[in-house]
Amino acid sequence: MTTTAATSQAGAMAASNIIPSADRPPQRILIECRRLTKSYRKGDNIITPLAELDLLVPEGDFLALMGPSGSGKTTLLNLIAGIDRPTGGQLIIGGTDISTLSRGKLADWRSRQIGYVFQLYNLVPVLTAYENIELPLLLSSMSSAERHDRVRSALQLVGITDRHDHYPRQLSGGQEQRVAIARAIVTDPTIIVGDEPTGDLDQESARAIMELMQRLCNELGKTLIIVTHDAKCAAYARRTLHLEKGRLVADGPAISGSVASQGGN
Ligand SMILES: Nc1ncnc2c1ncn2[C@@H]1O[C@H](COP(=O)(O)OP(=O)(O)OP(=O)(O)O)[C@@H](O)[C@H]1O
Ligand SMILES: [Mg+2]
Q: Whose CA is nearest to atom 2 of ligand 1?
């Protein structure tokens, strides 16, 4: 889909908030970007990493975000994750325009709705895998028994239960990223975002991580947005967006998505 088509789709769906589809039941729109813009002033210049972007993301979608370096991928991801704030347009997630929330409310919203997976894992080196995963739950009022259950389930889901007492330095890159994914999902967020989560991994580990991401979408119904430079990783998504100079230049199904989901590629 082109930018123009995406724009008209955004306009057409404003009233119903539902994307009709011939082969799937109607899907609720979870994320709506309307003329979403991010600009910075540097002296006399204005830099605009994201320019009036229109985008609709249905609940349970899996997006791969691609584009050259500097095209605005991280900027878009950080806006959707509530880490950064837009300078123009609207960003409506689950019915709330998050650009209007106060700093405190946005932090609270983020902790409940977003799981963030980074390229370099960002684990705390002095904590074990178990303790790293438990960390976001310590901010909630959850009982220790419930925390324990949640961490155990997350460890199991990402397949590293036997490494629960290992420190990050005792894990491979792929295992560290599994811990980071477990930490991102342990709070049961609606949306999982990843900024090049496979960027530091060998091909086999990268593929295993993308398979795991695909399961989070297919089995748990999570909505995922993953930045990647690798077409093979993007093929695990349901839909690929291409950004160039802060604009959406292409939006369509992942070309070989069915191959990836069948274990080919
Ligand atoms: N705080 C900032 N101040 C000024 N310019 C910024 C700031 N953050 C990002 N930019 C600019 O916005 C543009 C987009 O940056 P962004 O990090 O979103 O790119 P990207 O697509 O993620 O690139 P990469 O693939 O290299 O990670 C770049 O030109 C960058 O220099
Ligand atoms: Mg980036």
A: 40
Which residues sit with their C-beta closer than 6 Å to ligand 1? Answer: 40, 47, 49, 67, 69-75
Long-range contacts of 250-257 (CB under 8 A, 24+ apart): 250/1, 250/2, 251/1, 251/2, 251/3, 251/5, 251/6, 251/55, 252/1, 254/64, 255/231
Domain ranges within the chain, ordered by starting residue: 3-261
Ligand 1 atom with least separation from CA of 243: 21
Nearest one of 248, 252, 244, 250 to 69, comparing CA atoms = 244
Q: For 104-150, write each residue's pLDDT tens digit.
A: 999 999 999 999 999 999 999 999 999 999 999 998 899 999 999 99
Q: Report the phi/psi class of residue 63: left, alpha or beta, with left for phi > 0 and alpha for psi in -120 to 50.
A: beta
What's the fold here for domain 3-261? Rossmann fold (3.40.50)
pTM exceeding 0.70: yes
Which residue puts its alpha carbon closest to atom 3 of ligand 1? 40
List pLDDT tens digits, range 176-201: 999 999 999 999 999 999 999 999 99
